[in-house]
Amino acid sequence: xxxxxxxxxxxxxxxxxxxxxxxxRSNVLVKLIxxxxxxxxxxxxxxxxxxxxxRFFEYNVNTEIKLSFLNEIEYPAVTFCNFNRYYDSLVxxxxxxxxxxxxxxxxxxxxxSYTDPDYGNFDWVDWYSNLTAQNGAFDYANFTRRxxxxxxxxxxxxxxxxxxxxxSCSAANFTHxxxxxxxxxxxxxxxxxxxxxxxxxxxxxxxxxxxxxxxYLEPLSGNVQAGIKFLVHSKNTPPLxxxxxxxxxxxxxxxxxxxxxxxxxLQQPYxxxxxxxxxxxxxxDDYSLSACIVEWRLDIIVRECDCKPFRxxxxxxxxxxxxxxxxxxxxxxxIKNGDFGRVQCQVPCNMTNFPTTVSxxxxxxxxxxxxxxxxxxxxxxxIRNNFVYxxxxxxxxxxxxxxxxxxxxxxxxxSDIGGQLGFFLGASVITxxxxxxxxxxxxxxxxxxxxxxxxxxxxDDVKLENLENYNGIKVKPATSSVTLT
Length: 485
Fold this sequence. Notes:
By secondary structure, the chain is of the alpha+beta class. It is 38% helix and 20% strand. The chain has helices spanning 3-13, 19-24, 28-56, 96-104, 124-135, 140-147, 289-305, 321-337, 366-376, 380-386, 410-425, 429-471, and strands at residues 61-69, 73-74, 77-82, 157-162, 165-166, 174-179, 182-187, 195-196, 205-210, 228-233, 246-248, 252-264, 350-353, 356-362, 387-406. The strands form 3 sheets. Strands 1, 4, 5, 9, 12, 13, 14 and 15 form an 8-stranded mixed sheet that branches. Helix 3 (28-56) runs antiparallel to helix 11 (410-425), helix 5 (124-135) packs antiparallel against helix 8 and helix 7 crosses helix 8 (321-337). It is elongated.
């Protein structure tokens, strides 16, 4: 069978539509029509397949939004801070020389200013060296722990209710944490599972706090606000109280409505989130954007100052008062101004946020002011200037999830390619194997044909040689003459 016969066999039996008609029709015009139809279908199919590949390598994403209702929902962590870092009544006479430096050395990550005309040229190092020589080393962290906000049941935490049950929580349920506001306290910071099963006010955490405004020690260059700053956050996320959080003024009842939003993002090359799913940190068990930012700032401060603010984690030496007022203060200012570049942190691919909405009412109302005044043995004016009531609750027992999925997956790409080939050409995987078989058979038969030709040529040569020997004729390849012997 010749090579042309192999072509006719393939094109007349293939499952690809239209090809067989080109070879079956004897009319030339019909052959041309079918040829143009098949080539046109092949061209459109190729265009569509190239478009599918382009869309696949764009790595676009779709975002699915799901609202899930639950019987109960896990309660988040809530951190509370006072705008005042140190209480005047808790400062000992031996602490007084250091207080000015501590208030000046405000290490707020997002402070309004990092310069003070009264102390900008002051020699803090020499001043601190003289004090240390006289009084010994000053423990910055211990002083803050002792002279900062004390979360006790008698003076600060006047009332605490969990899920509407009076006296169901106390100061023992709050965990101390250092922030740029000094002493802060976090509810539900441990691994214990707390949940809310009823929506609305009074079904979460409700606390009454006394900010003790008459005991404030903040100067004009420090915090001029009065009240409580709080942050609702995940348990595995350190509270960044400066860049996040909400404030409530005294004499106010704050209704804090919380929602839970979960985000599931795809890693590169999909989308543009550039998230990470397996990153680890040096000082935190779980990766979060806030924890990464803390460690990024910590690395810069330790590199520049050879010490760290006491509120940062890690084994590095705590900065003393002079270092805090000079190097640390200047370094934080440079971080704020972008001198060290952008934050080298990526968002986690899986994270949970707690969007918070606060509405306010005056506290207390006129009808109960006298009763509350009697209960806590304070004046009505004192209540208006110092009492803050916070009611933190889920307004719905559900969570909202935003989940990214690939706009085109590999299986979808294969399906699209198969659909285009099937719709325009009627081709399938079977057709592919038919084509492979055709190529194999074509090569095999062509090789057989070439081999047979060589064998035939060899036989002709043998016959000619035998004939020459029989007749006594010798043929010289170089000339055309014949010699008779």
